[in-house]
Amino acid sequence: MAPALTHAAYEACELCPRRCGARRSAGRPGRCGMSSELRIARSALHLWEEPPISGEAGSGAIFFSGCPLRCVFCQNHEISSEGFGLPVTTARLAEMMLELQGQGALNINLVTPLHFAPHIRDAVAMAREAGLALPIVCNTSGYELAEVVRSLAGVVDVWLTDFKYASGTLAGELSAAPDYPEVAAEALAAMAESVRAAGGRSLAEDDSLRRGIIVRHLVLPTHADDSCAVLDRVWSLVGNDADLSVMNQYTPNEACRRSGGALSRAVTDEEYEIVLCHADDLGFERIWWQEGGTVSESFVPAFDATGVEGPELTCPPGSQAL
């Protein structure tokens, strides 16, 4: 049964697949590293997403602190595991969305947000009432509970979701989540169900995505076989109901470089071509890929609290600042 996305969910948290039961409302961090205090690291236009998301104007990206996964190769470790970010109210989050709309953003792109799902639901409702007209993009690792995904039907318009692994062994080794393949599959099926119920994939006149799914997969060095198995799984679940983004931008972080192991190098052209060719053979009609030279930490934005601080939004009638 889908949970009620009220702030009571933080009292014994089961918002993510860890189901850690942390008393986040009492200030105790869950496996995501966060209490119930909403924390955000950056709010700004972002030009480095897939073309239907960023377009020419940019996506209005809001980066949330914390993450239920612990990927050894994470590029966003400052916010995912080190907790950087400023505390904000739900009303301030709603105001950030409106500010990004005013800057010309194509959408509101919520990056790793669902361990704060009750805040998300409330902030979007508040922003809609105050004039937000942009699609809401949920930019997720894919490690989400299907029931939480279903609870956000009518809130999220575009699912920009990773599908990282087909092997539970690999998922356990690299992200401390051996259940990742099954969890991600159930979540993706729920995303597809939600989009179909809303009328299916939809584009704006400028070809930006207003409703739909983009499944991302980052190819990892020495693991092209698992990447191909991931594409098999995605194809069996959603076929061409989703766009597919195959990424070659894996960049070893400092820990991976020091290890000297398989993850200490970039993906080779041959590894990437194997995965792209497999995607084509399966029949994916909308495939986004990256040209050479994308291996760079410059793809990681500066987590410096840009756009986070500002005056509080005046709550619309009948609403409450949280």
From TrEMBL:
InterPro entries registered for this protein in UniProt: Aldolase_TIM (IPR013785), MJ0674-like (IPR040085), Pyrv-formate_lyase-activ_prd (IPR016431), rSAM (IPR007197), rSAM_sf (IPR058240)
Name of this chain's protein: Radical SAM protein
Record note on cofactor: Binds 1 [4Fe-4S] cluster. The cluster is coordinated with 3 cysteines and an exchangeable S-adenosyl-L-methionine.
Requisite cofactors: [4Fe-4S] cluster
GO-annotated molecular function: catalytic activity; iron-sulfur cluster binding; metal ion binding
Binding site for [4Fe-4S] cluster: 67, 71, 74
Gene3D superfamilies: Aldolase class I
Domain Radical SAM core: from-to ranges: 62-156
Keywords in alphabetical order: Iron, Iron-sulfur, Metal-binding, S-adenosyl-L-methionine
Pfam families for this protein: Radical_SAM (PF04055)
Bilayer-spanning residue ranges: none
Organism: Candidatus Olsenella stercoravium
Source species, domain of life: Bacteria
